[in-house]
Write a structure and sequence with these properties.
By secondary structure, this protein is α+β, with helices and mostly antiparallel strands. Helix content is 25%, strand content 24%. It contains five helices and six strands, in the order βββββαααααβ. The chain has a six-stranded antiparallel β-sheet with strand order 3-2-1-6-5-4, with helices on one face. It starts with 6 loop residues before the first strand and ends in a 5-residue tail after the last strand.
Length: 171
């Protein structure tokens, strides 16, 4: 049991083409999840998500500062990308500035240790990292840029928002 709340950071992708969404963990360096950001841990697979009171979430339900309940977990929307901001503003929705995300003990300790140890982080396309990933069985499409990731980064039909879930301390 822990004495403090844990903060879980997530990325929400909302697809305008079919009003579906998926939620995943953002890529964290040296997390053991591989070098491909599209392979991060998935919290919610892509589908239309029902609201607790019925109906489904829509683009107008997503804005910085709002809390949303997805299957009993409450998330706070903390930031969005430029395309999402512009899209919501064109709908006449005022989009607040990003909210500072709280830090949890693990993240703070990890940052302090990393600062103490020093050194610069290796870039994702570093030859050593690619070699180690290949020796651990990463397929070749993970080693060169992922075409799907490139498409998602440049596609203008996906809203991207940052959100957090804060778990209550266990006793």
């Amino acid at each position: 049991s822990s004495a403090a709340s844990d903060v879980y950071k997530r990325q929400l992708y909302y697809y305008l083409e079919d009003d579906s969404m998926h939620i995943c963990e953002p890529k964290v360096e040296n997390s053991g999840l591989g070098i491909d950001p599209t392979k991060s841990a998935v919290y919610l697979k892509r589908h239309r998500v029902p609201k607790p009171e019925g109906d489904f979430f829509g683009a107008t339900d997503l804005n910085i500062g709002l809390t949303i309940d997805i299957y009993g977990r409450v998330f706070t929307l903390t930031d969005c990308d430029g395309f999402t901001r512009t899209f919501l503003e064109k709908l006449g929705i005022e989009v607040p500035q990003a909210i500072e995300e709280p830090t949890d003990g693990y993240t703070s300790t990890r940052a302090a240790v990393k600062a103490h140890v020093g050194g610069r982080p290796r870039p994702v396309n570093d030859a050593l990292i690619r070699g180690v990933e290949a020796s651990l069985g990463a397929s070749s499409h993970l080693l060169e840029g992922d075409r799907l990731g490139q498409f998602l980064d440049n596609d203008r039909k996906v809203l991207r928002l940052s959100l957090i879930h804060i778990s209550e301390p266990t006793r």
